[in-house]
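User: Sequence for BPL/LPL catalytic domain-containing protein below. Tokens please.
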Amino acid sequence: MTIYHIQLDEVRSTNSYLKALITDRPNLPSWTVVSTHNQSQGRGQRGNSWESEPGKNITLSILLHPNRYDGFEPFDLNIFVSLGLCSFLDEFIPSQRVKIKWPNDIYISEHKVAGILIENEWINADLSSSIVGIGLNINQKLFVSDAPNPTSIALETGNTYPLSDMSERLLFHLQEIYNQLPSHITELRENYHSRLFRRDGMTHVFRDMEGRRFDAEIIGVTPGGQLCLRHVEDLCTYQYAFKEVSFVL
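Assistant: Structure tokens for BPL/LPL catalytic domain-containing protein:
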């Protein structure tokens, strides 16, 4: 698939820029990519900001027009992006250390290296387009925000990397996984589960929407993207949607 790459020196948000571009050019093709050296107001899930030192990391957004198929779930997009990032990181980090923290963060051991923000555009009940925003820490070594546990590939390996080459490799891995939809969706969902952060048979601490803490074991994620937790208190399994539960790190 052809990639149409728009490189900007600075922009407030690559997702917002691409969204505005679609308004002006509604026939913009899939795999139009907007990237920047300096994203001044990057956004993450739950309304969080994304810290990225100018010229040190990959910040980009990808336009997709997903093909619907039998059994399609919008969360399949999270799966493909997460696995594409993991596949890319496996080039530099032992794969057993690269994990997917539900719903859309990528971790190296206990530290966050990447975040994903997917914004879907619906026309009636049909998914018209998706904008996939990715922030991936490459060469940044000092983090000044209150994010609790950031890391970068440079911090993990002791090396620095040319961003243009890294962007090309990342897009290669993303397209490689995307091309496996829909024929390998069952395998991709299984791979996603095998990569889940803290899905290790142990109990961990979580926080619900009211701020209450509880102990639970991660069982998995439903095809629709709900996190399944078995509570220690009653040994029952409950499903949680985005924002209904969070990890206590």
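Residues 163-178 form the longest helix (16 residues).
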